[in-house]
Amino acid sequence: MLSENGNFVKVAAASEVEDGKPKAVRVEGNSIALFHHEGAIYATDNQCPHMGYPLVRGHVKRGVLACDWHGWSYDMEGGGCFTGGCDDLATFPVEVRNGDIYVDIGSGGKKRDDAHYLLLKEGLFSQDGWTLSKAIAIMLAKGVSEDETLEIMVKHMVRHITTSEGGGGRLATLMHGIKVAHMYDVEDRLIPLMMAARSAAGGHNDRPKRRPLPPPVDWDRLEDWVRVFTADKEWEGIEKCLITARQLGGHEDKFIPLFLDCASQWFFLSHTGNLIHLCHLAEVLEKWGWEITGELVCNVGAKILGQGRGRPGERLREAIQKAEELEHIFDDLPQEKNPDADVEFDEDKLSADLVSGDIDTIFDAIKDVLIAGVSIDKIATTMVMTSADRMARTPVNMSPGWWELQEEMEAAANIRKVLRFGGTKVAAKALFHCGWRFYSNRWLNIRHQPISQARESSNTKVLDENIALDAIIDGIESVRIQEIGRQTREYLNSGCNAERLLAEMGLCILKDDNGGDLLSTIHIVDREWHYCKDHPARNQMIVGLARWATDVRRNSGNDSAVQTAHRFAKGETATELYE
To answer: How far is CA 328 from CA 184, 324, 364, 425, in A?
Structure first.
């Protein structure tokens, strides 16, 4: 039995720790490694700060303790790390009294209270998923401010993107990861936050500071030049104009509306992702402000608008010509005051026209409901539900087109953001961009069904929610694609908790750290399911997500890094497997 002597605790007899034969002991719930080396006794945490391997299985040479798993090495007395540069080893004061070893646990411990911040920065530069996982797991376990953590990630992303590479896609993963994380309690946020961190990771390069144009210039001239350079695919000219506009001052609130207006032009008709990425950029700016993200806004906005575009094919040219003929309708649209305005329209007809495979039919249908006064918000809902219904019913024996269907749904859901950040006219144009996305997916050949009524299931009996939920999750994990749609629909139609199912499904998809491809869809389905709470077809979103997650799932996923990071942060280390 251990006995106390002041701040020191007796942990072993000195005779039990021989030179070259370290010993692990338990003290106050911690595994402590004791070493006899060069005539002295040392005490360290038995958990390697890298991945928790027991250090008593390592080796010591000239005061340097090296872990035998990955080779990380430490100063055995002071705990300084020679390998990682930021993750020091906990060491403890030792006294030998009357042949017994005493260790002062309270006076020892970690050498750097900010090690988790340094780990995060190291992971952001190295792009190492394990380092990022560990840093975020420690932060979550310690209750470190999530806002501070995210700010570090965003600041790093700004420098990486503006000096190296990347753009809209990285912003999308960042925002989707953060929003999916907020679907869960703290203990379940690790994976989506790690995916967000990965999107921010990468090296920094040198880049000459971009200086503004000399006077005389004003906003009107700069705005005109941005439009010219957008049409001419000259992103550096756009960036120069934006930097100059920032120096003028007083115009920063015009940037995002200008970006969205430019991206809604018809020569971008086949580039629906531009509007999506610019809305993510708007959200990043809104959350972190100009001081942190100003350079990113100018750089990414310019890269998106000034990107190269190939020559349009024949069908795209016809669609652009059709859209140009409709240009006159946008100036006469009323400003969107009430998204719930009660204007009657045939939703099933609009839905059927969207998937007709004929561009004239699609564009005329959108034009007609706009002119009739149907709110843009309601039209967006119809588009979202049409995409969701197609995802819930697409055949899986050939090429199901999951990515194309996801793009349909995200483009439709994004119209609400375009309306918010860009206004009525730009959002109305975005509807036609979304219409082109439906037209592009005509090869999917999914037979249309009305969306104005809920999908009935063959089994309407009352289900035990726990059993039914377990069956759905097991169906996803076992890749039983032919059953999962029916099981999910029966669960929802029987009145079981949809929010619980969506949350558990998200954890199932992400838990192996292989669900990054579905991160955006998890967020979109969660958001739209709540937003469209009165729509009879909204269950199809969850059914579609379940089918996609099951069809693309692979049983070879590896969750060891995530699980190890969780154990590491909680002090449940690998040493327990060996003691």
So the answer is: 46, 8, 14, 11
Amino acid (1-letter code) at residue 318:
E
Quote the CA–CA distance of 503 and 500 in Å, as a whole number. Answer: 5
**% pLDDT > 70, the chain:** 89
Q: What number of CA atoms fall less than 13 Å from residue 261's CA on the CB side? A: 15
Query: What confidence tens digit (pLDDT) does each residue in 233-242 have?
Result: 999 999 999 9
Contact 27, 103 (CB under 8 A): yes
pLDDT surpasses 90 at 220: yes
Largest CA distance in the chain: 97
Phi, psi (5° rounding) for residue 146? -65, -35
pLDDT tens figures, 120-172: 898 999 888 888 888 888 888 888 888 999 999 999 999 999 998 777 889 99
Q: What are phi and psi of 218, to 5 degrees?
A: -135, 175
Domain residue ranges in the chain: 4-112, 115-200, 219-305, 314-398+415-442, 465-560
CB-CB contact of 228 with 238 (8 Å): no
- The 8 Å CB, 24+ separation contacts for 442-447 are 442/355, 442/357, 443/401, 444/390, 444/394, 444/401, 444/404, 444/405, 446/355, 446/390, 446/393, 446/394, 446/395
Give the 3-state secondary structure of residue 175.
Answer: helix
**Average pLDDT, stretch 322-349?**
81
3-class DSSP state of 65: strand
pLDDT of residue 352: 97
Residue 246 phi, psi (nearest 5)? -65, -40
pLDDT value, residue 562: 59
Q: How remote is the C-alpha of 284 from its chain's centroid?
A: 13
What three-state secondary structure class fits 145? coil
> Which residues on neighbouring strands pair with residue 94, listed in sequence order?
103
Closest to 562 (Cα-Cα) out of 195, 313, 12? 195
Please name the fold of domain 4-112.
Rieske Iron-sulfur Protein (2.102.10)
Structure confidence by residue, pLDDT tens digits, 530-565: 999 999 999 999 999 999 999 887 544 444 555 666
Residue that is written with structure tokens 């992702």 in the block: 273
The 3-state DSSP class for residue 92 equals: strand
* Confidence (pTM): 0.87
Contact 32, 44 (CB under 8 A): yes
Please give the angle made by the CA atoms of 339, 172 and 131, to the nearest 5 degrees.
145
Q: Could you tell me if 197 and 516 are in contact, meaning their C-beta atoms sit under 8 angstroms apart?
A: no
What's the rounded mean pLDDT across residues 11-26? 92
Distance (Å, whole) CA 56 – CA 73: 13
